[in-house]
Specification:
The complex is a heterodimer. Helices cover 73% and strands 2% of the residues of chain A. Chain A is mainly alpha-helical. Chain B has two domains: 157 residues, Rossmann fold, CATH 3.40.50.300; 64 residues, no CATH class. The chains are: A mainly alpha, B alpha/beta.
């Protein structure tokens, strides 16, 4: 049923957009493709799972996990990425490889500390599924869609309505001139990481909730799918990332529903990416038109 | 009274020395120009004063304060305004947002609103387009915005880098007239410029820089009649 698939697609797509938003914000300011966003996704999921298991308060789990993961991001930015990119003549591949290393290390650390086995997330919603005709909507889906919308609204507000957001946008466009205008670009960088890693953490918890499982390797697929989404969204463009996330989510859901398993679900993101880039090389929402 | 002084400043890009022991003095209320050919190090010098390029040795004093190692954003807070080479307005920000960025360091909202309105009076064109994205404007309008963005800070010292570059001749004249007016209103100005002919007509004093060295320093009037300058920069 089409309606059902659309609801599924929008939900998966918004989780994708959340995952990729971190990488987008970070690319916007630091021009680093930070694969370690997928590590933030896994760390966030584990933190959320732990906080939920002791507090049984889902909102608290989200909030605390997002803040903690965001702070981890700031530390990584300040003590790992910043020293690397401030060296003269660093080619962009160096921070990229660093981020792959960070991502790998994080997965292994989680496995060493908490073991390789899958953990159940175990979130129970009191109300049952809502049925509208043949359409079935689970309460956790509503929770995820609403929370994602709230998070994006907060992001939009910060970027477009606050002084900090104005400075962020100016820095993303021309960090040298932003500095000359009085912007402490270290703060813009920290903001990117707090929001970016925080968003990735929330996406990790959502996926953990949805599939009722978290594992040390849960960041593997998002690590590369997120790349497809941010490139599709025009690299460094927050609005483009939301659009691209939704398109990939819908494409995956619809293709697997109506065309069966002619190809692996996770390959669809890249087929969409290649197709769009052939038609519009600057991505869906290019920096110039946003 | 000295507003800005550079003492034996040396700057290098990797192994290459681009500025070699340069000393420059700008007094309060003066309009000083640094002229020289492309690649002589003029923009590098301006960037070093703004804090966008580290210097290897030497000292930069501004209004009695040693700013040699101060980050750029703090220099903006001390009242150094910057009009960069090639305008470099924030294209995806609106005209008004660009001006807000210009006074980012000033926390007093009423004062900022006032100063933004003053810029709109000076450049009515910017007022008409205040909600438009900066990239949609012509080169001349963007140059006005770049100047306006530096003015909303109420700068004590204005650094201007190649204002004439890529502009129509009529716009170039307008820009130089504006710079002269700003200086008359009391702002100290340091201009680096390839268009020696135009800038020496409005400046009080000038320095000629070649391959990283200051080769001549004199009043603008004397520079205009200096044979070397005439031959190399004034095309006569």
């Amino acid at each position: 049923m089409l309606m059902q698939q659309l609801v599924n697609g929008v939900m998966i797509g918004s989780v994708y957009a959340l995952t990729a938003m971190g990488a987008t914000l970070i690319y916007g300011i630091l021009r680093i493709l930070d694969i370690a966003n997928a590590a933030a996704y896994a760390i966030g999921a584990y933190l959320g799972w732990y906080i939920y298991s002791i507090s049984h308060n889902l909102l608290l789990a989200f909030l605390l996990s997002m803040i903690l993961t965001g702070l981890i991001g700031v530390v990584i930015q300040k003590y790992i990425y910043y020293p690397i990119i401030s060296k003269p003549n660093v080619i962009p591949i160096v921070p990229l490889i660093t981020s792959v290393g960070l991502f790998t290390i994080t997965g292994d650390l989680i496995r060493l500390i908490l073991g390789p086995n899958v953990k159940e997330f175990g979130v129970v919603f009191k109300s049952g599924a809502i049925k509208i005709g043949k359409l079935i909507i689970n309460p956790e889906w509503i929770f995820i869609i609403v929370l994602t919308a709230v998070l994006f609204a907060i992001l939009w507000f910060i970027l477009n309505k606050t002084r900090l957001g104005l400075a962020w946008r100016a820095t993303a466009e021309d960090s040298e001139i932003a500095k000359a205008m009085g912007v402490n670009t270290n703060i813009s960088m920290a903001l990117s990481y707090i929001l970016g890693y925080g968003f990735a953490a929330s996406a990790g918890i959502m996926v953990g909730m949805l599939y009722n499982s978290i594992s040390p390797t849960m960041g593997d697929i998002p690590s590369y799918k997120m790349l497809a989404i941010i490139v599709l969204g025009g690299l460094g463009n927050p609005v483009g990332t939301v659009v691209a996330g939704l398109i990939i989510g819908l494409a995956e859901t619809l293709v697997s529903a109506y065309m069966g398993s002619i190809l692996p679900r996770d390959a669809i993101a890249f087929i969409v990416l290649i197709f769009v880039l052939l038609l519009k090389p600057s991505g869906l929402v290019s920096k110039k038109s946003a | 009274m000295s507003m800005l002084s550079l003492v034996d400043v040396e700057i290098s890009y990797g192994q290459m020395e681009v500025i070699k022991k340069v000393s420059i003095e700008v007094n309060k209320g003066e309009l000083v120009s640094v002229i020289g050919p492309n690649g002589a190090g003029k923009s590098t010098l301006i960037k070093a004063i703004m804090g966008l390029k580290d210097i290897k040795s030497g000292k930069i004093m501004y209004d009695g304060i040693d700013i040699t190692v101060m980050p750029a954003w703090e220099r903006a807070g001390l009242g150094i305004g910057y009009v960069p080479e090639g305008r470099r307005v924030f294209g995806n920000l609106t005209v008004e947002e660009n001006l807000k960025m210009g006074c980012y360091k000033v926390k007093d909202n009423n004062k900022n609103k006032n100063n933004i309105n003053k810029v709109y009076e000076l450049f009515p064109r910017l007022f008409e387009r205040k909600n438009q994205l900066a990239k949609t404007m012509s080169g001349g309008e963007q140059q006005m915005l770049a100047i306006g963005r530096a003015l909303v800070l109420e700068p004590k010292l204005l650094l201007i880098d190649e204002v004439s570059m890529g502009l129509m001749p009529i716009m170039v004249n307008t820009c130089f007239k504006i710079i002269k007016d700003l200086n008359d209103s009391g702002i100290t100005v340091l201009v680096v410029e390839q268009n020696a002919n135009k800038v020496l007509k409005i400046a009080n004093r000038g320095y000629v820089i070649e391959t990283g060295h200051i080769v001549i320093e004199d009043t603008a009037e004397n520079l205009r009649s200096n044979d070397v300058v005439k031959k190399a920069y004034l095309g006569s």
